Amino acid sequence: MTAQSERLRALIRQEISAAGGALPFDRFMELALYAPGLGYYAAGATKLGPAGDFVTAPEISPLFGRCIATQCAEVLAALGGGDLLELGAGSGALAADVLETLAEADRLPGRYLILEPSPDLAERQRALIEERVPALSGRVHWISRPPAELRGMVIANEVLDAMPVHRFCLPPLDAARPGASADVAAAVREVLVRRDGDRFADVLDTPRSPRLAAAVAALDLPPASLARGLCSELNLRLAPWLAMLAGHLAAGMLLLIDYGYPRREYYLPERRDGTLLCHYRHQAHADPYAHPGLQDITAHVDFSAVAAAGMAAGLALAGYTTQANFLLGCGLDRHLSAAATDPEALLDLAASAKQLVLPAAMGERFQAIALTRNLEAPRQGWCGFAQRDLRGRL
């Protein structure tokens, strides 16, 4: 246990005491990840890569960024130019790969904006971009809030999974009873966080968070899940967050890539314990209280909720598909052939490409969704979703 983790534990204990002995889980998750100077993303430990706790697609292969750049180029061409905004830029590898690819295609944005809540990650991003694409680093700007009006494209790769979520539990219910939705609302118990000696633990109670019970009742949960009982997550911050972004997007596309499911799959009985997942030194586990401030805490994304919230905010649902389909639609094969300079390099790139697209790796577990405003799609559709558009699953 480091001194940073102990200071974070003390801060959380104070909040639990101030809240009367138990804290909603979304607030615990917010503190664990983002408490200034103490949370996982706000402190200085290495998060990404072999020395960190996990890797994301841009670290696995530069082909990921090259494919993202292809979709960016198509959007910028439709707009006649514009800016790119990346939310939570990780190591900076995605920004470097996108800029390099767009420069080769003579389709550079006016600016590449990065909205990064972690000061430590922002410094690492600056260093990597300056090293990888020094001639283009002048186009990159770090900002603390979205621009008042953006024309261009917003990229959010593995951002939503780290958004604080509420957790809830339902006992087994008879879904066939008349008024079953009312039964659900009355039966919802919120997962709160209490002290358990020097550690933290779950406690179930009547919901303290406004809108939680009604939001769970509105999920239209599968009868089999209601019959067996369910503990899962719900992101009540998603709709306000998307509405905020929509308010800044004058014209362009919001592209979100993350692991998750459409709602009809999210709350199935096989996931009756939820989707919460933690990463610590490249080990995945389900205990969010094990290493406060030293581990990542994530929840899978409900992409049906993303689509509904985006459309409620005035955006158009422009596409939804798996990561594999998205990358193939953006020319993964072409980028692979163009980037390989010799047989050994080709083998290495092909191996990394498999990690991006194979169903057992990232290809099916990760999904891509596009929301647009004042942006007309090409006649053949957006390249990332032309391979196979799965909007009907939402």
Describe this structure in words.
The chain is an alpha/beta fold. It has helices spanning 3-18, 25-34, 57-60, 62-79, 93-104, 119-132, 180-187, 212-217, 223-228, 238-248, 263-266, 303-312, 323-329, 332-339, 343-357, 383-386; strands spanning 23-24, 83-87, 112-115, 140-143, 150-157, 166-170, 189-196, 199-205, 230-234, 249-261, 277-280, 283-285, 296-298, 301-302, 316-322, 366-373. The strands form 3 sheets. Strands 2, 3, 4, 5, 10, 14, 15 and 16 form an 8-stranded mixed β-sheet that branches. Strands 1, 6, 7, 8 and 9 form a 5-stranded antiparallel β-sheet that branches. A hairpin with a 2-residue loop joins strand 11 and strand 12 (283-285). Helix 4 (62-79) packs across helix 14 and helix 10 crosses helix 12. The two termini are 43 Å apart.
Gyration radius over CA? 21 Å
SS strand fraction = 15-25%
The unreliable regions are: none
- Give the helix level as a range of percent: 25-40%
Structural class by sheet pairing and helices: alpha/beta
Main sheet summary:
8 strands, mixed
Total count of helical runs of at least 4 residues: 16
What's the total count of β strands?
Answer: 16
- Ends apart, CA distance between termini: 43 Å
Q: Average pLDDT across residues?
A: 93
